[in-house]
Amino acid sequence: MGDRLSVALVTFGCQMNRSRSEHILHLFLQDGFSEAQEEEEADVLVFNTCAVREHAVARAVGVITHLYHAALRRRGQPPCVVLCGCMSELLREELLVRLPCVRVLTGTHNIEELPSLVREAYATGERKVVFSPPSPHFTERGYRRKGKVSAYLPIAFGCDNFCSYCVVPYTTGPQRSKPHDVILEELDEVVREGFREVILLGQNVNSYGRDLGNPRAFESLLEDIERRFGGEKIWVRFITSHPRDMRREIVEIVRGSRVLCPYFHLPLQAGSDRILALMNRGYTQKEYLRIASFIRGRIPEAVIGTDIIVGFPTESEDDFAETLRVVQEVQFEIAYTYVYSPRPRTKAAQLNDDVPQEVKKERLQVLNDRLREAYLRRLCVHEGRVTEVLLLEEDGELVARTRENLRVFLEGGENLRAGSFLEVCLARNPQGKCVGIPVLCQDGGES
């Protein structure tokens, strides 16, 4: 085995996984590995996986198999395949049968050990399978790639909600919150390193600190962020929030802040009270609409995002109509929609998955159409507004986002680069996209 094994990471799933992948890469580089230029050339292929839906598992298995064989053809010898993350934690040894190419298998609680496990696998030729219980404390730091504009900063890990359809509490363990002062220290580093945007992460970010015995910990954190960084040119947003924990004081703090961004991601999941109860979501349609209405009233330009599941067991046409009613009323600017699939170990998996697949697909199409119609109506609020956008590079292309997280397609502008702030006038083009017409270019940051 050479001294400089190369490693490549492939990430599936949420922003927390993307953040943890940065941490995993940092661990490997710190241990003497190099970063492969291409996945097919890597000695070590690390897959940080997701298990929130069956589709995510099927996709991951397909990608892992494809990249393994592509690397084998390119290199002439098999790469060391490493699986970690939620899919590993949920399915465990089952994956060794489905994916015989796997050499190292761990869950969500062993990422600090990955470099040493890989070296042991190389030295012994044996498979390494290691699963540990959750640590009682969350101390994992956010590591950031130089040259990037946005930085993830995990503030809590794990979930106590046990929504009936969701595997996250089983794969991440109970919520553990990072100490308040440590978060502020990390945010100090982000500012010094020149990042323009930081995203505070948690599976249920607005319940931050509940495990520390402080029901107002999230509000205190936001207040301290504003006091400490209010004069800095940086945007701070947070995801994902649970509607039940979106207290009015949080909205008021964001409303009066110079750095906290008025983007609220509030997963609805369903609009029917009956289905919400079966999902164990902890709120009613009326309660959800009350907080959405409060946000719209206090911060008219705020953007509200959501997640919605169609086809949950026993969902009737009347239940689905209630979901459409909420879409009509809230007019979400951002939405992620899914067809229900039963997940192992969850309470909903014990229910009869009785909504036919073709009905689920039809409802998904109807839902997406209604979301699109509502989004176009909502754009009228933003049209004509002169606002600042942050330029970012995504998949090799320059894109723009407003402070409220509204994606904007630029029309015109010269010598633009990622990390720059640009003043634009928002408009809507004939295709219904939100476009930004540059008004005044301000000095930007590093690209």
From TrEMBL:
Q: Which cofactor does it need?
A: [4Fe-4S] cluster
Segments forming domain Radical SAM core: 145-377
Alphabetical list of CDD domains matching this protein: Radical_SAM (cd01335)
Q: Where is the MTTase N-terminal domain?
A: 5-123
What broad class of enzyme is this?
Answer: transferase
Matching Pfam families, A to Z?
Radical_SAM, UPF0004
E.C. code: 2.8.4.3
Q: What is this protein called?
A: tRNA-2-methylthio-N(6)-dimethylallyladenosine synthase
Query: Can you name the source organism?
Result: Candidatus Caldatribacterium californiense
Please name the gene that encodes this protein: miaB
